[in-house]
Amino acid sequence: MVPQFAFFASMLLFLASAPLNASPTPSTPSTGLEKRFKTLKDQWDNENISGRFILYNNLWNKDKAARGGFQRTEATGYWYDGDRRTNVLAWQTQYNWNGNPREVKTYANAALTVGLRKSISAINSILTRWDWEYTAASGGLTANVAYDLWLSGSPNGEPHSKTSTFEIMIWISNRNAGPTGTQVATPNVGNKAWRLYQGQVENWTVYSFIPPAGVEITGYEADLKLFLSA
């Protein structure tokens, strides 16, 4: 059996059709000495955050917005949480896309850059906490908020590439969006109920864990390793 390697992890905000100023943003402690971060406006703008995360604006499919639009992504804080003994990134995205609501336009995301390219058997846990909110959202919003984990048969592979074997998505919000494939199970992972969808994209299989209808998890704390053996 070919060993699987977990080598890429992101916190994603999928945007298909969205209102002005809908921003997922964790709380940021005020120190009076806040670092100035870049405002990411263009299609492939990104910023390396202290060598641990890369924040992407990622307007990869913006031309699908039939009536145009815009998006801005910006880090609002980065600090060390002594109580949890972990680094915390706060960021926000402001956007307004119009037309073709079933077409994905963008995927603003914060990508982890450390502790990757390991065999699954060598990973004890993938601990995470994500607090987020929409500060404004239209009733017709089509979007999701999710984690994205990529697996490969090679430790030197890249996400979304010919070496990719599996993509595991954990959706913590779903507003009128649809996952790839069809529902295959209703597992309980991390003491929460999920609807599991399976589908195929190019050469890799996608597993999407979706909350029950109407459920939105705005303060999510979990061990994502559990989803690799669900």
Automatic annotation (TrEMBL):
One term of GO molecular function: cellulase activity
GO BP term, pick one: polysaccharide catabolic process
Gene3D superfamilies: 2.60.120.180
Signal peptide per UniProt: 1-22
InterPro entries, A to Z: ConA-like_dom_sf, GH11/12, GH12
The entry's keywords: Carbohydrate metabolism, Glycosidase, Hydrolase, Polysaccharide degradation, Signal
Xref: Pfam families: Glyco_hydro_12
Family: Belongs to the glycosyl hydrolase 12 (cellulase H) family.
Protein name (Swiss-Prot/TrEMBL): Putative effector protein/endo-beta-1,4-glucanase A
Protein source organism: Ceratobasidium theobromae
